[in-house]
Amino acid sequence: MKTRLTNKDGEVRELTDQDVKQMRPMSEVLPANLQRAIGQRGRQQAPTKVKTSIRLSPEVIEHFKAQGEGWQRRIDQALKTYIQEHSHSR
C-alpha cells in the first residue's frame, strides 16, 4: 500500500528517499502540451534587458559556463560591478 503524500487537510508531508525513488519522469506522466507549458517561461510584459550580440574571448565564456546555469546572468552582474567600481562622480 502506498503512503499518501498529503494528509486529510491537503498538507503535503515531507518526502522520504523512498518517495523520491518511486518518482517517474515528467515525460511518462504528463501529456506533451503540458510538459511544454511547464518548461517554458511566459512572455515578458515589459522586458528589463536589451538583447544584444557581443564577442567575448573563449576564456571568459569558459570561465562563466564552468560555474553552471546562469552564466549570462553572472556576466551581466560582473559588468554591473565593474561599472559601480569604475564610475566617477561628476
Protein described:
It is a single chain. The protein is mostly helical and 90 residues long.
List keywords for this structure.
mainly alpha, 0% strand, 90 residues
Short description:
The chain is about 45% helix and about 0% strand.
Structural class, please? mainly alpha
Distance between the termini: 72 Å
Mean pLDDT: 87
Helix content percent band:
40-55%
Q: What is the rounded Rg?
A: 22 Å
Layout of helices and strands:
Blueprint (H helix, E strand, L loop, with lengths): L16 H6 L3 H4 L2 H7 L19 H8 L5 H16 L4
